[in-house]
Structure formats: C-alpha cells, structure tokens
Amino acid sequence: MRFTHAQASDLAALLREAARAEILPRFRRLSAEAIRSKSSPMDLVTDADEAAERQITAALQARFPGCVVVGEEACAADPSLLGRLAGADLAFVVDPVDGTANFAAGVPLFGCMAAAVVKGEVVGAWIHDPLGDDTAIALRGEGAWIETPSGERSDLRVAAPVPVERMIGAVSWTWMAEPLRSQVTARLPRLASGVQFRCAAHEYRLVASGGAHIVIYNRLMPWDHLPGWLLHREAGGYSARFDGSEYQPEHTGGGLLAAPDRESWQAAREALLA
Questions:
Q1: Which residues, listed in sequence order, are joined to residue 154 by a DSSP beta bridge?
Q2: Tens-digit pLDDT profile for residues 86-141
Q3: How far apart (Å, rounded) are the C-alpha atoms in residues 42 and 141?
Q4: Which superfamily does CATH assign the domain made up of 5-155 to?
Q5: What backbone phi and psi angles, to 5 degrees, belong to 234?
C-alpha cells in the first residue's frame, strides 16, 4: 500500500483535529492530577496524551479498518502491542504529545506524531505542530514537505554538509548509559553548537528543514522516531544506528544518528561516538 497526497493531507487533518480538540484546550490548564509519571519522573503522561491518542486511534481505525494502531499510551498499558508492529499488513505508530515534559511544564515545544508501516516498511510520516498549526509530511520515495491547513506546501531539505566543527547538533544524551553518556557529553564542544528541545518532533523538523546538521538518540521507541526518521530520509538525509546498521521499525535500542549524508554521518560518529 502507498498513500496518496490526498490521504497524506487527510491524516494531517486528523492530527490537527485531535490537537485542537484534546491537546490545545489543556495547554497550561492541567491540574496536578492530570499529570502522572510512568516509568520514571522524566517519563510523563497527561490527560491530553490519553485523550488525543484515543481520538487519533478511533479515526485511523475508521479510515483503515483492520489496521494496527501502536500508540505510546496504549503500549504503556499493554506492552505486547509493540510486537504486532513489524508483521502487520498496515500499522500506525502514534505519539499523541511528543515532548510531554514540555507540555506539562507549559513550554510551547511539543508535537503530535504518526507514521504508517506496511509489512515492516515505513511508508508515511506526519509531525504536526499544534501551536504553529502546520504538519511536516513525508511519503516514501516522494519527498518531504510542510503543509498548512489551507494546503500550501513548502519542500523540506536537509542542510548542506559541513565539517564537524561547523555542525549544529541535537544530541539527546539523557537515555545513554555510562560510559557512553560521559563520553558524548565531554565531546559536544567538538560541534559548533548544540540544541536540546526535549522534543524529538521539533528536533526532527529542525534537522529535516536544514536548521541543524545532526540528531543523535539512544533509546528508539518507534512512536518517537519512525516519523522523524522517514521525514529526514525523504528530505535528503542519511541515518543509521550507532554500529552502522539500518534502522528498522522493530528496533528499540542501538542508537540512531542522522546527518546530511553518509560522509557527514561517519565524521559525526567518529567525533562523538567512536
């Protein structure tokens, strides 16, 4: 199955509707009881996450009967759901509020993400910015673009390659184990500059639009990275796991480094990870 541009726009509208109905009305209006911890104090869920995921899941299942929907919050309740992703004829991964820590703190950097997976291949990606009210979209083999509610589109393209000392990087070291964590943080000054949004949705949009050169993540839950991985790839970039192997939907570890091209990937890996 391949998605048409009309279907891609429809799924962007689906995310926008969920954001308007369930996410934005709760922004900076959450009670203490509406914010809860999951696996750790850094791993949060709010009423907005759960309500938006329910709406998105129901809308996807109505449009694509029989599809598997692997939502972040549904997987928190039933981890076995993750195992259905790789073998499904059609599956969607959904992160209803990426950057929940920002959202819960009233910081305006969060996004709503989804990706379509057909028999183990990522074929579509959507990263919606609820506050900017536009959606970054990618279709496999057809490029990546930003689309507004009116249908206006602007193509996405990664930054031109530069030496490591001129690279801007979004490096997420929070989930790295020692000694890698200390090594990477000690080597960050080898880059020209770094950013840390606490939000993969906006970091992937940044690197796919040429605003930064590299992103690095260690933990790879599919709802956090499948949308951004395809967006970056279709914007002309190159990515691989830390050992050089290809990233697959079923991977949850092994790290991911995305760069403008293979040579930039190798240089960044040597500078920060080798």
A1: 146
A2: 889 999 999 999 999 999 999 999 999 999 999 999 999 999 999 999 999 999 99
A3: 36
A4: Fructose-1,6-Bisphosphatase, subunit A, domain 1 (3.30.540.10)
A5: -75, -15
